[in-house]
Amino acid sequence: MIAAAVRIVLACADGPDPYDAYPSFFLNDVNEKPAYQPFYYTDLLTFYDQYDMYEPPKMDTLPDDNISEWRQYCKGAAGADDISMLVYQFSIEEVQALYAHIGKSKAGQLSERAATNNFAQWLVKNRETEVLEYLIFAKKCQPYTVPLESYWDNQAEQYALPVRDTVAMGTLIDEGLVLYRNVKNDNIKLRYAYQVLRMAFYSNRYAETLQLYSQLLGDKTSNSIIYPRCLGMKAGALYRLGKKTEAAYLYSRVFDLSDELKPSAHISFNWAVGSKTDSVLELCKSGHERAVVYIMDGLYQSEGQEMEGLKLLQEAYAAAPAIEGLDIVMTREMNKAEQNYQSEKYAIGNLIGFVSLPLYAPAENYRNEVQEKMNRYSTYLQQLNDFAQKVAKEGRNGNIAFWHLASAYLYYMQGDMPACKEQTDIAARKKMNDREKDLAAIIKALYIAGSKTRIDAGTEAELLPSLQWIEERAKSKPRFEKVYRDMMTAVLGSAYLKQGDTARAIFCFSRAANSSEQIAYNGDYTYSVSGGLLESMSPERIKAFEDYIQQGSKTDYELWLIKNNTFTLPVLQELEGTKYIRLHQFDKAVEVLKQVPKDILAGTVLPDPFIMHIDDQHDLRKIDTAITMNKLQFAVKMAEQKNKLDKDPKDPEAAYLYGAGLYNMSYYGRANHAFVYYRSGVDEYAYFYNPARDKLPAFYKEYYDPAEAEKYFLLAAQFAKDKEQQAKCTYMAAKCWQKRCPAPKNEYYYYGGDDSSYVAYSLKNPYFGKLKNEYAKTNFYRIAFNTCTYFSSYVKKGK
Asked: CA 131 to CA 796: how far, in whole Å?
């Protein structure tokens, strides 16, 4: 079976999923570095983990450095939970009670949670008065450092600095300096310095913040997690004083020293200098510090910087070959290449037309634009690959296997399959983490699928274990749901389409669909590629598809592909029957729909398709639902009327009922679901004629322009014996004629608004003249005059 080529697109949907904007196989978490998750590539969000899509933010899995440092302080005598409760949740009164308890044999009763808290008990037992004094002071400071609740409530104050009690904060600064001078423990001393700096900064004393930093820390450094926080206070003060280059330099130091502060340091760095880092680099004191700045620059992309990452990778590696984050920037470049090059490569051969309606095919110049972009990226991919191989060969940065896998995937994108396999095999001989093993398995599957120009039975047999592994992995690893879907659609589905195997392509697309997409063969084809492919097929080709499903001998791959698929035999038969209804081949529709189970037929309930109304309102009236039909019943009655007309072309009743059935299954009728599975209330083809209608298949033209129904209404009017019936049939023909009004020049005419052109066209309706001249004395004429404003306006205009 041969399918028209198709570019897989979504239209009229919500905004693109920021984590799923392109087919992607190079796992963005392959490096297993949770602190860098916010910097995984997406061009639609500031930070990748801004929303939780596949998994919770990995930053949340990082240990709390502050709690870890306190645990180290007490030499593991208390667990993280107890320390966290005391440090973060105990009230200031509870900590004061602990302080008072030390040295008093008859001290007051401790709170229940203090009495059972191991950290609290350790502090009391070891008479850690300095720690408790510090915690009391820190809890005094904390309320002045949190955002004010009203900050965003008043629009006029949104960008103003929050108003705080600066007098009280000044008092705390003085108190903190006294405590700083009196404390002996260096770690506690540093923590006092941090609290004092916070009070100065958050009370808008920026110059004083710098003076205090110089006084309390000077040029001293520390391995404590508090040190980068102090640096952050100094950087913030510099930023507020307009010294943005100096601030950016310090933010780069904070980024380097603290995993927990990486996101905030990176944001502040970008606010300070953006991508203009030359002045920051001049302040760096070592190759390592320069490399950090290059890495930070590489973790953020502005528009138009799609191919800037390699330069930053090269600079960072030259400055400090072992620099952390080099692999993260490389992974970002791989993902960018997937979006800007590989996704287009998957699609470039499929730009002939859209699935069902060729109007929605991409513009003719799109292929040239894409090809030009791909040509530029092709050179860039080779340069990236050269860099990956250089780092892999020198073995000075991170896991060597990662760089071989990066090279393998780049070779895959470049179409060099032997080199792809060679690099994957080399990586397999190196030490790999679990995600690198996953990536190696994915690349192996891509290699198998892409190593031949055509996917044949041998390729399928070799590929099946890999596909089953990815499918099973997706059950426990949400990220693999996307890998599986992209494999089945972008790789296999597209490949089958190119080689003309529509059946396998449909099964691939359908198997990859999640539950919300399994609306199958509906008329809203833009939401289901597999359904769209079926929409594009003739009933004869659908029948061939059915025969394929029923075929006895199948390979293991074919059995797996068909298993648990949306498109079962009854579903396909229902669609085949619907196709025949669209073609007005009702006898064939009956023959097919008789095979469809009742429960599937019951899925479509048609209001009485043989009742006509003067207006085209789609709100159902009681008379419309007195009799309802499924598609089989509708097809049976339509076939009966057609058989009568074949025997007697002058049968007015059969002609009228046949015309009514045709009209009601059109866009304008109440039984339109006999034709489509979804009807949009806004449709540019409806009511107005534009040249785009000419591009539609013939049966779809009839859906929007019921010319065939008009023909049978006129036939019924010609041979009807009763004036009332003649008038009614003539009016129904007028309704059909009205649905081909020339489209206005306004591009968005079909959204409503000014309908003056439609009114003007309607007032030229030739059948209105016949009604007025020949049937003015009928009861139907009176009802139509009082119901249809178009007709009444026509009559009044002629008086």
From this structure: 95
